[in-house]
Amino acid sequence: MTNGTGDFDRRTFLASGTILAAAVPLAASAKTEGRKMDQAAAVKAETGVPITLRINGGDHRVTVDPRMTLLDTLRERLGLTGAKKGCDQGQCGACTVHLDGRASLSCLTLAVAAQGRDITTIEGLAAADGTLHPMQAAFVDNDAFQCGYCTPGQIMSAVAIVHDGHAKDANMIREAMSGNLCRCAAYPNIVAAIEQAAPQMKRG
Fold first, then answer.
1. Distance CA 161, CA 192 (A)
2. Other Cβ atoms closer than 10 A to 201
3. Which residues contact 35 (CB under 8 A, 6 or more apart)?
4. Nearest Cα residue to 173 out of 148, 193, 153, 143
5. Which DSSP state fits 82?
6. Mean pLDDT for the chain?
7. 121: burial class by Cβ within 10 Å (0-12, 13-18, 19+)?
8. Coil, helix or strand for 168?
9. pTM here?
10. Which phi and psi (to 5°) does residue 55 adopt?
11. What is the three-class DSSP state of 2?
């Protein structure tokens, strides 16, 4: 604004100067924050470890934090959400996958440690044409689904105990499956499903 003579008046000049004085430190602060973010991103990039995971017969390249678990890598980085995060402490078995054919708790396994090993998740259990694995079919036949959240881990453990020779009778099955915890009430159905699938798996 002018004082009628085309010049800035004193009040306008002081107000403009105040705004400018306030804007300078804000701009400097934003620039500093920008540098900090760039540095943080650079550090993050430097600490990431590029790895290749062989999952369900295919190779997946991903850069992960060395502290990242296999479970989080599967779910958050690769979109394989079949393995569930239950207790996240290795006590419930909901995150069970196979490493080289053996049951493994993916929440306690570092992704970098799984490199070079064959990883099988529930997504890779059925045949390529969609035919269910005998254990999956047995869970359907015996209504052994529980609420569904723990079912993938139960099925992965069930397949592993059959391969390991720990499914010769109901007592062995109950003992071998004791690492998979759930509050649902389908345990008898799970035992029945494993007893049905075991001979089919041996024949296959």
1. 14
2. 17
3. none
4. 193
5. -
6. 85
7. buried
8. coil
9. 0.76
10. -120, 125
11. strand
Per the listing, tokens 């394989």 go with: 80
Residues 63 and 47: beta-carbon distance below 8 Å: no
Q: Which residue did the predictor score with more confidence, 182 or 101?
A: 101
Q: Is the pLDDT of residue 171 over 60?
A: yes
Residue 2: the pLDDT is 47
**Helices and strands per DSSP (H, E), number in the chain:** 6, 5
SS3 category, 88: coil
Q: How far apart are the C-alpha atoms of 107 and 10, rounded to whole Å?
A: 68
3-state secondary structure of 139: helix
Q: Which residues pair with 110 in a beta bridge?
A: 69
In tens, the pLDDT along 132-149 reads: 999 999 999 999 977 788
First to last CA, the chain: 89
22-31, 60-69, 145-154: range with highest mean pLDDT: 60-69
CA torsion through residues 199, 202, 203, 204, sign: positive
CB atoms within 10 A of CB 36: 10
- 116: which 2 tokens? 């070079």
The whole-angstrom separation of Cα 175 and Cα 161 is 10
